[in-house]
TrEMBL record:
Its EC number is 1.6.99.1. Coiled coil: none annotated. Residues 2-323 form the NADH:flavin oxidoreductase/NADH oxidase N-terminal domain. One of its GO terms (molecular function) is NADPH dehydrogenase activity. Pfam families: Oxidored_FMN (PF00724). The gene is namA. This is NADPH dehydrogenase NamA. Keywords: Flavoprotein, FMN, NADP, Oxidoreductase.
Amino acid sequence: MKLFDSITIRNLTLRNRIAMSPMCMHSGLPGGFVSDFHLVHYGARALGGAALVFPETLAILENGMIGPGDLGIWSDEHVLGLMRLVSVIHKMGAYAGAQLGHAGRMLGIDGLSSVAPSAIPFDDGFTTPNPLGEEEILSVIEAFRIAAGRARDADFDVLEIHTAHGYLLNEFLSPLANRRNDRWGGNHENRYRILRHIIDAVRTEWPGPLFVRISSTDYMKGGNTPDDFLIYGQWMKEQGVDLIDCSSGGIAPVSVKSYPGYQVPAATLLRDKLNIMTGAVGLIDSAGLAEDIVQNERADIVLIGRGMLRDPFWVRSAADELRTTVPVPAQYTRYGSWWLDNQPKPVPAPMNETEGKY
């Protein structure tokens, strides 16, 4: 089963093609710090067999938090807790991914002012964000760079730039949210400019695998479509991005008819047209679908979200469904690792000198 084959991305070899998708838990300590919940929650998914575990989005600035209890990486003080979280994920057998992001106009914290490329609220009844000035944009780029260095110092293995789901960088890319008439808005090149600078800045601090999560379509007339991401994706590839993580939506309140695998075609399109690795995400709700995606080269990895919330051992359950086997933690075998480690070691029988064998 190809789903359980290893895959090498830049300098990192994953034990299978399954990652845990980043999902906000809103369970951090005040100030964006790691709590015991995170150690248990993410450690369990690593123990459960995922090759790569992404904790939730790490906010690069305090006014970039998606909601209360989110994790931060805007301060050096966050590094120690994140390092502890990464250590747990590593000890449980998986690699750890850091998704860096900024909520933009989707800021969910009272008392802070939201920012965006343009003064356009998400919808009626939502707060109108403050448009970012030139110096503020440069400060955001610098914040991503510094955050990448902190992720490196915390021993993360993969870095992902969050450019999806209606948050700040998605807002810059989308003509529905970006109505600027300066060098940061207008045509594709200008709307991509902030991401171009961020990728270059991050690469000065981060030598390892670099992913970008995108919203491949805005689901609205005048918004981005997968064809727009053939343009953006080519630039990402030229800048050294290793994998494009293909999600969708979030820039506007639209009704989406979702179904298992509904976002996979965008991952396949970018993979085939750009010759770049892609990740498929979104209602991949069965082992059969996950295997089909990687076996038929529709994407290189799958990122499981809701499935892993329901079942920390989703990987093992998938192996059972596909009638194959995956390594099981020794503690979950009949006797457990302590019993195995503490049994007397077998002693070879004395050599039979006549026969010349044991």
